[in-house]
Write a structure and sequence with these properties.
Elements lengths: L2 H10 L11 E4 L9 E8 L3 E8 L9 E9 L6 H14 L6 E3 L4 E3 L2 E10 L8 E10 L3 E11 L15 H19 L2 E5 L6 E3 L2
Antiparallel strand pairs: 1-10, 2-3, 3-4, 4-9, 5-7, 6-7, 7-8, 8-9, 10-11
């Protein structure tokens, strides 16, 4: 699915505001397992900016490891965590009829709202691969950012309830390790709001 279609999903979920960015700064860096990163796409507009990043040494066109950053801003972003994660689920469902979603649970931290969500696709219809997408949404009154770290793998079984299982036990072990590293990585992603002077800032969890 092309990223332009993701944009169409997300645009359709946001009212037509006159948008103005606040002093919003995303604190993000490449995952430790990546040897740096490179940008493979950027889709800016007056309402939203979406960037895609892959490991610096990734083969051209590879989607094995991917980070997507979506930043939107407007008059109110109170329900952005649910709108953004719902849009992401709709995007994934177009190529994953058996998508499982762990929905976001919103937690307010001062001026920030923070939520995590997980998306599991045992077997994609476009490639016969499995995929996992972990997402973190950080929102304020006027801005929101959705950061998704994703990985493509062999297809797997996803019993509910029950643990994910691959035919090769080594892949199951690798999944558990990725699960922890992805969770740790998203915990390291923060948003900071700068004051008018630009010298002082308050950061999210």
């Amino acid at each position: 699915m092309k990223l332009s279609i993701i944009l169409a999903f997300i645009f359709s979920l946001f009212p037509s505001y006159l948008f103005a960015e606040e002093r919003f700064e995303l604190q993000i860096k490449p995952p430790p397992a990546w040897s740096g990163w490179k940008q493979t796409g950027s889709f800016p507009s007056e309402r939203l900016k979406l960037d895609t990043l892959v490991p610096a040494n990734a083969f051209p066109g590879s989607l094995k490891d991917l980070i997507t950053v979506t930043h939107t801003w407007g008059d109110s972003q109170a329900d952005a965590p649910f709108r953004l994660t719902n849009a992401w689920a709709q995007h994934l469902a177009t190529s994953c009829p058996n998508l499982s979603v762990v929905p976001p649970k919103l937690k307010d931290e001062g001026v920030f709202s923070v939520a995590y969500a997980q998306f599991f696709c045992p077997k994609r219809s476009d490639s016969n691969e499995g995929s996992m997408d972990f997402a973190k949404v950080i929102s304020t009154n006027n801005s929101a950012v959705l950061v998704v770290i994703a990985q493509r793998t062999s297809s797997y079984t996803n019993p509910v309830p029950g643990p994910i299982q691959y035919e090769d036990n080594a892949e199951t072990i690798a999944f558990v390790e990725w699960l922890k590293s992805a969770s740790d990585y998203l915990s390291s992603v923060h948003v900071c709001l700068k004051d008018e002077s630009g010298t002082n800032k308050k950061c999210s969890p």
